[in-house]
Design brief:
97 residues; mainly alpha; 98% helix; coiled coil
Length: 97
């Protein structure tokens, strides 16, 4: 009987150890899943920030191109106005003769 009791005690001890080990592994697994979920949220947030930054960059690039175009337009208008004044001077000089 003593042998059976020792075997049963050893078996019960091993079962308790396995249960404790299972609980530890389950806890660790839950923590790892939570960490993965957290990392996925961070990745999603960073991807959204990247998309926003790319959109902002494209908007700024477009605005810069328009700004250069507006500056060129202003410069061209000034040159045309100067040419018109020169033509008017020439017409005035020719009409005086």
């Amino acid at each position: 009987m003593e042998s059976n009791e020792k075997t049963l005690n050893t078996f019960a001890t091993r079962v308790r150890q396995m249960i404790l080990q299972y609980a530890e592994l389950k806890k660790e697994n839950d923590e790892l899943y939570a960490l993965v979920d957290q990392r996925e949220q961070e990745i999603k947030q960073l991807q959204e920030e990247l998309s926003q930054a790319e959109a902002d960059y494209n908007s700024l690039k477009m605005a810069k191109m328009l700004e250069v175009t507006d500056g060129d337009m202003e410069s061209a208008q000034k040159r045309v106005a100067k040419l018109i004044r020169d033509v008017n001077k020439c017409i005035t000089l020719l009409s005086e003769k």
